[in-house]
Structures
1.
Amino acid sequence: MVITRKVEFSASHVCRNPELSDEENRELFGPAANPHGHGHNYVVEVSLQGEPHAVTGMVLDLKELKEILNREIVAPYDHRFLNYEVPPFDRVIPTVENIARDIWRRLEPHLASANGRLYSVRVYETPDLFVDYYGEAPCIA
Amino acid sequence: MYRVTRRYGFAASHRLHAPQLSEEENRRLYGKCNNPYGHGHNYVVEVSAEGPADERTGRAVDVAALDQLVRREVLSSFDHRNLNSEIPVFEGVVPTSENLAIEICRRLKTNWSTMFPGEWPKLQKIRIAETDRNIFEIRADEIE
């Protein structure tokens, strides 16, 4: 069984590789390379896979999941400039792919229980663009 | 490995009518969708591609390149068109959203390497919503 909880945060970022020229960055990243940065309302869907506990009937207490998401994602990410304020994005380009991986890394240790585990992280950068990340596992159809 | 999904839209008209069946059978089978004058939808197409993140860019898919491919192969020929009379593949094939999904996926798969010549990213699936409630999905490996 897979259960999903959604959280949102707003943040600014700039996508540029410091080893490339301004022109190369503009070519690669388009308007996202603007050095002053720009922002998005990110939407994150975190899915857990597991079986309901025999007594509680829950894979994981959703109240607890909400607290973990607020503490591990919303608190560090919300209303921040990712490149300047949220490591590892001082050295990793904050593309939506890398944001999904960082969210996975932050959540995974808190979500392994007897009943379930982290299954996927979906991050919407806009309603028209999103990434699914399954950790080291291959993407699941 | 990442799956990147991008959402696009186009508006088109169609009529569901199978020439092998009688007028009455068509009306019974397709209901309102058989109206001889046709009708239209705002189709929403989601294109998903998979791959590892490129070391230099931190991205798994060059979204601008994907936009260009989808515009060239799909949107430019389908948007504001009548699918039955203006899209050659639907001469004799009913333009249901199932068949539309197959055609869109086939066009993207056939031309994928013109925009993405490397091993990655790979086209994974397309999903088409005819309305909010009718959604059709096909994996690229289901297409020849």
Note: The interface with chain A takes residues 1-8, 50, 53, 56-60, 62-64, 124-125, 139 of chain B (CB under 8 Å).
2.
Amino acid sequence: MTQPLIEVTDLKKHFPIKKGLLRSTVGHVFAVDGISFSINPGETLGLVGESGCGKSTVGRVVLRLIEPTSGAIKVSGQDIVGIPRGELRPLRRQMQIVFQDPFSSLNPRIRVGDIVGEPLMVHGVGNKQERAERVAKLFNRVGLRPSQMNNYPHQFSGGQRQRISIARALALDPQFIVADEPVSALDVSIQAQVINLMMDLQQERGLSYLFISHNLAVVEHISHRVAVMYLGRIVEYADKKTLFASPQHPYTEALLSAVPLPDPTLRRTKKRVEGDVPSPIKPPPGCHFHPRCPYAEARCKVEPPVLREIGPGHQVACHLR
Amino acid sequence: MAPVLEVSGLSTVFHTRRGLVRAVQDVSFAVNAGETLAIVGESGCGKTITALSLMRLVPMPPGEIAAGSVKVDGTDLLKLSDNEMREMRGSKIAMIFQEPMTALNPLLTVGNQIEEMVVLHDKCSREVARKRAVEMLHHVRIPEPDRRAREYPHQLSGGMRQRAMIAMALACRPKVLVADEPTTALDVTIQAQILDLIGDLQREFGTAVVLITHDLGVVAETAKRVVVMYAGRKVEEAPVEEIFARPYHPYMQGLMNSIPRVGSARGLDVAPDERLQEISGIVPPLNDLPPGCAFEPRCTKADARCKTQRPELATKAPDHIAACWLA
Amino acid sequence: MSTTVSEARPSAPGFLSEVLYLSRRYPLGVAGALIMVTFVLCAIFADYVAPLDPFSTNARSSLAKPSEVNLLGADMMGRDVLSRIIHGARVSLAVAVGATVLGSGIGAAVGLACGYLGGWFDLIVQRVTEVMDALPLLVMALVITASLGPSLRNTIIAIAIPLVPHVARVIRSNVLALREMPFVEAAKATGMSEMRIAVVHVLPNTLAPLIVLATAQLGSTILTEASLSFLGLGVPEPYPSWGRMLSESAAEYVRTAPWLVIFPGLAISLVVFGSNLTGDALRDALDPRQHD
């Protein structure tokens, strides 16, 4: 069996809350509270959850754009957490990121050709001529014309800007890309274009994706495995078919039940979950989900459930499964 | 039974530096009491401007409602004076928006804002209005409504703010509720709660709802009739089951084929891992529309006639119209 | 949510069409810019534009009314008012531009440092700037010139110093906001050094607000210089200064020779007005959140 490309173990990120004149720490935001997962080469792990669950933070911590509080992140077997920041640069070639907002992820004052070529410049790849050729090739690959390389970001549509972001992420030929809600800000008909592009690229280049999204349908389409997050923890982790066909965690059930399906003839029994998502500053004790869980028992309020394997490759964090 | 809302030939334009933008062109539809009509389309199709035109909230200048009529219970809103229209807003026709934080006044408590509405339209005392406000908050299922009424919008979560906005909109029991992407900014579990709430309130009050959205899932679950808009015009209209079963316009077909569906393993007729069908190209700019069919540049079925002649809406099946030469 | 914008403005229109476009879109701004340009030209080419020598006194023309010889009249020593105003533009603009560039430059550097270094440095600088901001510009400038002594150089310094905290705060908040932008994160993800990110990505995006701020400040620096000179603490003889022209004539001659007060005052007002108009228009033009 191939060694996983990315292996994350018990990752935590707690943001201190500072108040007062002397900026003393009065509390923490438990954004990521003990996450473990792995991604094989050429695979996509979909990370789903609603706002405040910490999925975006996970993406940034894995790339060490934000420093983890604790935990291990192994890239091709090498733990990158202990490496001093100054020595991270060569590793960065292997891992890149694509953001959600097509409008603020490109510097408005730099030409798009230079934006895409910048990673090559930073790593001293080739001379000016070679870089320009590479950028032109990338433009073609993502469905843009090299003649547009001299334009500025504001001259492109949202979908085109996402393509530029993808081209930038591909410039250094990485093996792993964190995609943080890459299509959420796009129109539906453009989403399909970008999703197809990302899947084609994965086929061609053997890319791995950590695909972060709140859109379950898109995640189901593009992922091989899926992890569901709630308030900083993974509550369910399985391959796509299993998760969507037979979800075990009550939150996963509620999520799937809540997604409106484009088929008016379906009258589903809806497992509605009440209440709002609690704050990651004061998460409920025990199982974070217990205040909203229709099946919660006494044990759930006290003891946090551990992620256990209940079937081949299927893990759930629930006392009742 | 006569429809409670009757829109006929609505056209709204904007006078801009880049020329005349025809945001809405000749749009007509009708909604009965207690029913939901969904207007679907993507950005640039004119659905939001349509909603704002119904409420006469389009900034004029540079906007202008160039033609048409909007009849609520027989009264044409477009013919009313500004004062008369102000009376109608809230009492006969109300609107809720996508982003509740910007639609609610951050300096007034939630209860205050609802009271304002009630006092204005029902001309009752503050006491009565206050009671009504708390009642409404209770109605929209906000726990501890009397406490919440005294809180400010920023103290509520996104879902609760949306409920508060619904409470404000329905406080005076309007006949028509215009909902512009009311759940797009919300988490999916909260979205489900809000859609359920709107449905329940609709059944209770008999409100006609015009739901603006780009999400076909939401349309399927909440609407009775569907209007599809593209580049400012209506291009298809039918009851919801009919339009999902037999979409005639290539744009609607493209939309339906391009969305991934949850539940490929749950018995829906979709093969997993297949490529999503794309609609190539982008929406045309509204100040520079092509002479023929606006969708032609992106349409896989288009022929020569589509390029030069714009198709009119025609009946393709019982109670199902579409604007396409080749459907 | 998303706004699908199709191909927007052309990237490189001709110079003339760009000017025409600007004058239709920002008529006030173009008017303001014209005023400023006129004064700048006067300042540069004062020797050629001024009809008479601003320094030569002429007892016979003392307090002469505006006439063919002295278009705007003459002062108590017979010096031509128009020529003094034109030469005065030199001083006013030199001080204004000098002080603004100095103050904005230092302010921008401080703001950038605060935004990037944070921590104790930021905390202390913030408190210092808050104190400085609480004092009126004029009062601070007065104190500085009083202690340093009136001269052209000291006037520039005195007006530049109070500008620093003001500019620093604006730049600092811009920098803080920019550092959170996804395109900066993306640059970090490619392994770019912080220093390089600051120069390539953050700085250019702060320049626009800086330019707008500086242009807007121009007007108030001119006023401050005029006030200082009026009080005798600004630019000394022999440089003609609009402020001093006012102080020399305001009390005694305002009724007998009003042109001595009106025209310098008008000059000050026009330049301040022009710089405000230009600053406003620049701010609108450089605002990325433009819709049609």
Note: The two ends of chain B are 32 Å apart (CA to CA).
